[in-house]
Amino acid sequence: MRIGAVTFPGTLDDSDTIRAITASGAEAVALWHGDADLKGVDAVVLPGGFSYGDYLRAGAIARFAPVMGKVVDAARGGLPVLGICNGFQVLCEAGLLPGALLRNAGLHFVCRDQWLKVENAGTAWTSRYDAGAEIIIPIKNMDGRFAAPKSVVDELEGEGRVVFRYAGLNPNGSTDDIAGISDPTGRIVGLMPHPEHAIDALTGPSDDGLGMFLSVLDSVVAA
Amino acid sequence: MARVVVDVMPKPEILDPQGQAVARALPRLGFDGVSDVRQGKHFELEVDDSVDDETLARIAEGFLSNPVVEDFVVRRVQA
């Protein structure tokens, strides 16, 4: 099992993502923004950070990196893709997920451990969780407020594509407390909080994040 | 060569906390009478005459703005 982690200029969390993939038992494959192929990986993670300095808009320039053309094609063909934080923003800018991530309503960079409710345990990245489970993983961003036209939000809610919702305090004014969403197939998931920072209670608030990296292994085996 | 201006603004229904923060600061600075502020982006492009309006619209819609949450206006300001 080979899971890729993409590094753009300005990506910060590729090391922890590779550590999380390795902890799940898979082989982590480093992918570079300039790569023209995905090295035969079974799934891809777009880690967090500030790709291209967040210039223009978060994720707006990373979307045009050579590797993203391959990620978009493969994702449309069914490859599981997880976008974390800046990776979520990249997936929205690339059109693989709907909506956009805007400046936090409180205008503060929010960095804390965040409780989330797993709303959909049927996606490729959440099958190891119980539906309705509450998990605690870190959140750290400036632009985490999910926004989309009402028709899109209604569609996400109606189809069970809100995968994670903030439990307790909404940290950024996100519509409907949305923390993460999926595409219609459940194979492409994006979320603002950071599961890769919570894979071991020694170095994070919990090991609740590891379930996402384990879930995708199940989905690849089942595919 | 021509100068083209592209103004990008958050859609009216999108919360603009940065604009609100500016609006709230004005009375504290002694400026009264400003009831609302919306903050956007202003781009100035120097373009060859061969670049047509359709291309400019594609640049504005596909890159300079995110049509999900932003509106844009393209203007040629210098012939």
TrEMBL record, chain A:
Pathway: Purine metabolism; IMP biosynthesis via de novo pathway; 5-amino-1-(5-phospho-D-ribosyl)imidazole from N(2)-formyl-N(1)-(5-phospho-D-ribosyl)glycinamide: step 1/2. PROSITE patterns: GATASE_TYPE_1 (PS51273). It is found in: Cytoplasm. GO terms for cellular component: cytoplasm. InterPro entries: Class_I_gatase-like, PRibForGlyAmidine_synth_PurQ. Part of the FGAM synthase complex composed of 1 PurL, 1 PurQ and 2 PurS subunits. Part of the phosphoribosylformylglycinamidine synthase complex involved in the purines biosynthetic pathway. Catalyzes the ATP-dependent conversion of formylglycinamide ribonucleotide (FGAR) and glutamine to yield formylglycinamidine ribonucleotide (FGAM) and glutamate. The FGAM synthase complex is composed of three subunits. PurQ produces an ammonia molecule by converting glutamine to glutamate. PurL transfers the ammonia molecule to FGAR to form FGAM in an ATP-dependent manner. This is Phosphoribosylformylglycinamidine synthase subunit PurQ. It comes from Actinokineospora terrae. The gene is purQ.
From TrEMBL, chain B:
Signal peptide: none annotated. Its EC number is 6.3.5.3. It comes from the Bacteria. Keywords: ATP-binding, Cytoplasm, Ligase, Nucleotide-binding, Purine biosynthesis. Its main location: cytoplasm. One of its GO terms (cellular component) is cytoplasm. Gene3D superfamilies: Phosphoribosylformylglycinamidine synthase subunit PurS. Part of the FGAM synthase complex composed of 1 PurL, 1 PurQ and 2 PurS subunits. Belongs to the PurS family. Part of the phosphoribosylformylglycinamidine synthase complex involved in the purines biosynthetic pathway. Catalyzes the ATP-dependent conversion of formylglycinamide ribonucleotide (FGAR) and glutamine to yield formylglycinamidine ribonucleotide (FGAM) and glutamate. The FGAM synthase complex is composed of three subunits. PurQ produces an ammonia molecule by converting glutamine to glutamate. PurL transfers the ammonia molecule to FGAR to form FGAM in an ATP-dependent manner. HAMAP family: PurS. This is Phosphoribosylformylglycinamidine synthase subunit PurS.
